[in-house]
Amino acid sequence: MKRTLCTTILMLCLTVISAQKHTLNNGIVQAKTKVLTLVRPNDATLRSDDPMVKIRQQPTVKANAVGEIYFFEGLGTAVLLEEKTQKWVCVGHNKTYGYSNSNFLDTQDWYTGKGEYRLIADGLTPIYVESMADGDDDYRYDKALCYARSGMILADKFSENEQYYILETAHTGLFIPKTRVRKEKRR
Hints:
Blueprint: H1 2-20, E1 38-41, H2 43-46, E2 53-56, E3 65-69, E4 71-72, E5 75-76, E6 78-80, E7 88-93, E8 96-101, E9 105-108, E10 117-121, E11 125-132, E12 139-148, E13 153-155, E14 159-160, E15 164-168, E16 173-177, E17 181-185
Antiparallel strand pairs: 1-6, 1-9, 2-3, 4-5, 6-7, 7-8, 10-13, 10-17, 11-12, 11-16, 14-15, 15-16
């Protein structure tokens, strides 16, 4: 009993410490990985009766669910907060963070290490997802999917328009304000 209580307290402390290093004062979840990486349900999960992956408060199936990761317009809807090295990975979705079972997830990124240029976050950088404004043909980029920390590699596969660097996906894109990014030539 005493050992179980100590283990539970240790798990709660580790969860709080982990959460603190991913959460900013304003509640925005921020990734600690070197490269911007989104997570989404893997193909087997997408073919199942429940094609979403739970985000849990602690790295166990017994913990309460605090969110879900789903597949939307060719994108994962959560960001990997720590490198994927174990069964449970720390992920963020909107202003929620938690743990998901990596057996049900795939990752996606836009960095190959071979592009002529790479994009580096210059300060806290919002990554916007394209959304329609009131159902008409005016697109807006005001919904941040996630935020990249300063120095994070965002991509070396991208296109651009006047205001944004665009990370292409099968159906839509992610948009990064040019004013928040350094574009560096590969060495």
